[in-house]
Each structure stands twice: as C-alpha cells, then as structure tokens.
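Data availability (excerpt). The following record was deposited with the supplementary files.
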Amino acid sequence: MSSQPLQIISTLRYDPSLPTVVRQRLGNAHTYPDPLLTPYYLLPYHQDRLRSAARYFNWDNASRFLEQDLTQFAQYLDSFIPQKGKCWRVRIVVDQSGGCKVESVAEPRIELENFLVPFIISPASTPWRVFVDIAYTTPSGLTTHKTTAREDYTAARGRAGIATPQDNAEVLLVNPRGEIMEGSITTPYFRRRDHARRDGPAWITPPLSSGGNAGTTRRYALVQGFCTEEVITIRDLIDGEFCLLSNGVRGFLLGKIILKPEV
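Predicted structure:
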C-alpha cells in the first residue's frame, strides 16, 4: 500500500466536438445523461461516482465539495482546461479535506462514434489484446471505488507484460472465486452464451458483487440497455473470442481474449 494519503479519482475526456455529436447522433439527446451537453464525457456520472466514493469513506468535507450542482462543477473544471478548442484527458482528484486537483493532458482528436450508445465500432478496428491476470485480487472498497491506491492494477498489468498506458492491451482482474472483476483501466463486456434462448441484451458485464469498479461507461451501457450484469468466470472465457471494453477517455473499444501465450 502506498504511503501517500488516499484520494478518490475519476478520469474523463474533454472534447469540444461532443455536444455537436450528441445532437447529431441522438436527436433530442434525452438518452444522453448530461442535460447541459458539456464537452465532458458523461460528466454527471463522474460527479456521482466521486460523491459515492466520498460517502463510502465518510469524507464529509469532500462530500460537501462534490454536492455543488452540475453547472458549478463544470465551471470549476473549465478553469483547468488550457485551451477550450482542443481535446483533453481530465483527471479529477479529490482528497479527504475536500481539496480538488484537476490534471489536464492533451489528447488527439478522434471520431466519437464509439462514445455514444448505440455506439459504432469500425470493422477495420484493430482489437486490443485482452489478457487474464494469473494472480487473484481481493475485492474491497478500493476496487469498487476508483482511488489513487492503484497497486493491484499496476501489478496485474506488469504480470501481463503491458509496458505502458499507451499499449493497446488490457488485463482482466480475477477475484479469489475465479470471477472476472474488471479490467485494469476498462470495463469489459462479453457476448452472452445463451442469448438465442433468452430475452434481453446480447452482452453481459460483471456485477459489482464480483468486486470490480462502478465505472461511468459501465453505468451508461447498463442504463441504455446495451448489457446486463452476470457473473463471468475464467472458465467461461474462450481463447480468441472478441469482447468489448470501455472507459471514460476512450469510449467503447473492441478487444480479443488471449488465454494462450503469444508465440
């Protein structure tokens, strides 16, 4: 465990094209969960995620800071965006005292078709390599809520041989019951094996009871009916099968499960 004081975090994309794309793709935009149509991807869900974490850790001062309304919160974040016409990776860091630090890192401009449910993933997309961790991770509040305590995730990425955050690769964390929890930086989705015999979405994602993070894109996918929750074990995975991944900076991405060592 790090000796640094614990902080709660949420990371999202700032993209000045987002409001226009939402209007074009979703019409009246009622199905998109940001009534202000800010350039911050899924902003209300990120604020809710931080609020939930602050309540879990009994951080009263942080909770009071995060109770500001959405307009105020967006204006606060705006003060940390160096150039409004560019794209940024925005990392919101809140400490126990209610102090909030916002880090903005430039992101390349990309098409946003894969950010909005129903999303579009290009058939020409090169899938991310998706490995399964060889060690177990014990679920806790530090896996359900996103914090600066990232040692479990860093260790899992190291065991999978993922060298940098820029690698198009992911590793799935596994709890001691052999259930998939989540990815180290994404939420995973898998095709439902018995979909042809049952009603409901064709995709499933691990339930929070398996110990993974209550992510914002995960919430978006569930609310929009793209997927449902279902326990997924290592035994359920098939080498070479395609899956989907999502996070607040990259949207929804294509992945490919790799169970056998790459030659």
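Summary of structural features: The chain has two domains: 8-107, 128-257.
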